[in-house]
Amino acid sequence: MEDHLAALAEAARRTRESAPKITAWGRHLAGVFEAGGRLLACGNGGSAAEAQHLTGELVGRFRHERRPLSAIALHADTSATTAIVNDYGDHEVFARQVRAHGRPGDVLVCLSTSGGSQNVVAAAKAAHELGVTTWALTGPAPNPLAALCDDAVTVEAPTVATVQEMHLALVHGLCAALDDALGVTA
């Protein structure tokens, strides 16, 4: 347990330098929502849980009351997901949904601890084709997803668990930055 907490503290120390980027993402996202846009999010396994956590905070609320914001976790529609996997293969599961729901000016947040998940990379490529801004939260760089996206925060950590824990902190940081940019207060 002590080793795990030490690794988490070290990862947090390294990731702290990404705070200005997350703040900028929050300001950008406020503009997207003010213009009637939406956020899409995708990931596999634990990263899917993080994607859904992010969209839940936006559709619901983070710390304080505010209007609901349009945010979709692409794995959460199980009927669409299983139909797409059945008809097109797992590599298309998120890309097809990006093509269905994404509009120019929207944002796609891609989460991947490896940064190499084929279906997440395909979603980022589909987003680029549509004019959707892409942001990645990944594990250590370099990786294909971070290189492909418009912007990325890479977490240097020794284990997937620590990367995922830092992604949750970054998700919460993005929510706080967004609320600040929207002028949401207690």
Automatic annotation (TrEMBL):
Protein name per the record: Phosphoheptose isomerase
InterPro entries, per database record: GmhA/DiaA, SIS_dom, SIS_dom_sf, SIS_GmhA/DiaA_subfam
Domain SIS: 29-184
Entry keywords, A to Z: Isomerase
Gene Ontology molecular functions: carbohydrate derivative binding; isomerase activity
Lineage: Bacteria, Bacillati, Actinomycetota, Actinomycetes, Pseudonocardiales
GO BP terms, alphabetized: carbohydrate derivative metabolic process
Record keyword Isomerase present: yes
Top-rank taxon: Bacteria
Organism annotation: Amycolatopsis vastitatis
A Pfam family per the record: SIS_2
UniProt cross-references to CDD domains, sorted A to Z: SIS_GmhA
